[in-house]
Amino acid sequence: MSFCRMEIGRMDIAMARFFDGGFISVFARLSLSFLFLLSSFSVAYAQDTERRGDTASVSSVYNIDEVVVTGSRNETDVRHLSQTVTVLNRTEIESTGRPSLLSMLGEQVPGLFITSRGMMGYGVSNGAAGNISLRGLGGGAARMMVMIDGHPQYAGIFGHPISDSYQSFMAERVEVLRGPASVLYGSNAMGGVINIVTRKMDKDGVSTNLHAGYGSYNTVETELTNRLRKKGFSSVISGSYNRTDGHRPDMGFEQYGGYAKLGYDFSERWNLQGDVNLTHFNASYPGPVTAPLVDGDQRITRGMASVSLENDYERTSGGASIFYNWGKHHINDGYTPSKGETPSDDRFLSHDDMMGISLYQSARLFKGSRITVGFDWFRYGGRAWNEYVSGEDVGKSKELVDEHDDEVAGYLDVRQNIGRYVTLNGGLRIDHHSRVGTEWVPQAGVAVHLPYSMELKLSASKGFRYPILREMYMFPPQNPDLKPESMWCYELAFSQRVMQGRLSYGVNIFRINAKNLILTLPNPNGSGMLNQNSGEADNCGVELQAAWRIGASWSVDANYSFLHMKNPVVAAPEHKLYGGALFMKGRWNVSTGVQYIKGLYTETDPVTKEDFVLWNMRVSLNAARWLDFWVRGENLLAQRYEINAGYPMPRATVMAGFDIKLGI
Predict the structure, then answer these.
(1) Cβ distance 594 to 579 under 8 Å?
(2) DSSP character string of 108-169
(3) CA-CA distances (angstroms) from residue 512 to 21, 136, 317, 330?
(4) What is the pLDDT, as a whole number, of residue 139?
(5) Phi and psi at residue 164, in whole multiples of 5°?
(6) Please, which residues have CB within 8 angstroms of residue 233's CB and are 6 or more apart in sequence?
(7) Predicted local distance difference test score (pLDDT) of residue 396
């Protein structure tokens, strides 16, 4: 790894020089040079395979995993989208054996980083983790949207996702769109989208799976899922229980989760489905090691429900859905004895909710076209207060906020094929906020389908984020006059599949310009601090990814991202490199991966960076048709490192357990 660090260090200097001077002209030269080299290799390879009689067409090397819904609302071949979507299917999710979805996404998606502070559990409030950063945008400001089946998931008051709610048992696949998706999904999709597509049964039968494990720090993870399909009826019912004592005192975490989904196909063209997801967790956080905290406890309940009716005809498809999210938070922020603090007299409580209606319909009006028209209405907010449990005001409460906001939007998304080789994409959203005003959100791009299974994509898209209730109305920095944040992202992407689809690779080059970012700064008109639209971002970067299915037993994959930020932010590493391998033969299944992080900002005042290497491995043995035994190790090099400043991560940890699979 010393060689790897030296080489990436040299690359860091070169990249910084590259992005600091003449980006656009150098960008064009580098892109053309890179494409020329790749094209030369690809043409040579294709000519060689043609001589050997291996003449697979462009379309034949793409499989069903490349059909996505996140970038267009309706099922679309990813080649026709001008933005990049990364897909993790159910097999890949199960191969990691982790209860949380976000931890695996941080490895598999270049440019994406998830903060963490322990072996299990992200928590909320002070000292929490689970902040999602993509290309230097994200963090606690909720510039990255998480969705379940296309429905936004975030706390109505605080505006950010609740990372502990996204568990692997509910996901059939996960689609990650890198770059703004505000045309289709509105505010909070400013930096990108993580869409969790829930599980389903494709054929008649019954399937029951049990996953159970135990390991370091008295950690337990369990999951039980039953799936059923008979004629037009289908159901998925899942439950989970996870807990850990944590690797530090007062760092326990306990979680209960449940998920149910019912569906009915009236015909091949129409289907109705509804689902409910419920998560409750109890978490403790011990504060930074330099100032240990006492009684930092949280009791959080999050729920989600939705109903949708969908249609799918040869020339048109669409759907209508209604969803409702809600949460209850009970938080004791604790106290620090070393600072002379005593137990707090009050507790923070909140009830928040979000409901919405989404309608869309797409149609192919003429050859090669796809036009989608949609309408969204969201209402979100809630009430937060401090409740006194001791002291002179015991039994009383102090209101912090009791507000709701509305958003209403309409959008148009157009895709047009020009012959066999070009697909044009364009979109426009008009979004109105009940307090802030109206945003116009355009997007445009082109996808070029080159010979020898090559794809070239160019896009320019706007993203935006409305100020949230916490920023406008809660706590001393609040400012009701805040304006929306906005950004433009310009991206060039190239990808190719060769060897009949067994080898794929790609590169993305992007630039982000953001303005009116909300920061907490000294009040220019008085004392104290004030939330203000004073932040800017000028981020540039390169992302690489590759995968090679070597044979029936072996496959390898890798990704790398470099991020150059004019104004560094916490939880955005300059370099992120991951390499993984999967071996499957007979009864054995072995997966392993190494991740190298360089230049991770854990603090910006003062500037503090972390560099570390993580090695993870999972081995499973199929003891019987219905029984697997497995063992999983993480941070096997026992690295000392921090992701959140003041919160050292655990050294090497081990989990072991079994999986039972009954039915089809």
Answers:
(1) yes
(2) HSTTEEE---SSS----STT----EEETTEEGGG--SEEEETTEE---TTT-S--GGG-BGG
(3) 16, 9, 33, 38
(4) 60
(5) -70, -10
(6) 262, 263, 264
(7) 92
The two tokens of residue 577 are 């490199």
Q: What are phi and psi of 181, to 5 degrees?
A: -130, 30
What's phi and psi for 176, nearest 5 deg? Answer: -120, 115
**What is the pairing mode between strands 588-604 and 642-644?**
unpaired
Query: How far apart, in whole angstroms, are the C-alpha atoms of residue 154 and residue 145?
Result: 8
Burial of 611 (0-12, 13-18, 19+ CB in 10 A): middle
DSSP reduced 3-state for 246: coil
Distance of CA 148 to the CA centre of its chain: 11
Tokens of 435: 């307090």
How many residues comprise the chain? 664
Contact 272, 252 (CB under 8 A): no
HSE-up (13 A, CA, CB side) for residue 593:
25
Single-letter amino acid, residue 266: F
What are the pLDDT digits (tens) for 338-377? Answer: 999 999 999 999 999 999 999 999 999 888 889 999 999 9
8 Å CB contact between 45 and 37? no
Beta carbons within 10 angstroms of residue 223's beta carbon: 21
Secondary structure class of 663 (helix, strand, coil):
strand
HSE (side-chain half, CA atoms, 13 Å) at 356: 26
For 139-198, the pLDDT digits (tens) are 666 788 888 888 888 888 888 888 888 888 888 899 999 999 999 999 989 989 999 998
Helices (H), 56-129: 90-96, 101-108
Q: Which residues are within 8 A (CB) of 167 and not within 5 positions of it... i.e. 6 or more apart?
A: 99, 100, 101, 223, 240, 257, 259, 279
3-class secondary-structure state, position 41? helix
> What is the β-pairing status of strands 171-178 and 503-522?
unpaired
Pairing of strands 67-68, 145-148: unpaired
Instruction: Collect all residues with Cβ–Cβ distance below 8 Å to 28 and sequence separation of at least 6.
Output: none
Whole-prediction pTM: 0.87
DSSP state of 466: P
With a cut of 90, say whether residue 58 has pLDDT above it: no
The 3-state secondary structure of 422-460 reads EEEEEEEEEEEECCCEEEEEEEEEEEEEECCCEEEEEEE
Residue 10 pLDDT > 80: no
Which of 486, 561, 595 shows the shortest CA–CA distance to 15? 561
pLDDT digits (tens, 9 = 90+) for 167-178: 888 888 999 999
- Residue 590 half-sphere exposure, CB side, CA atoms within 13 Å? 7
d(CA 531, CA 522): 9
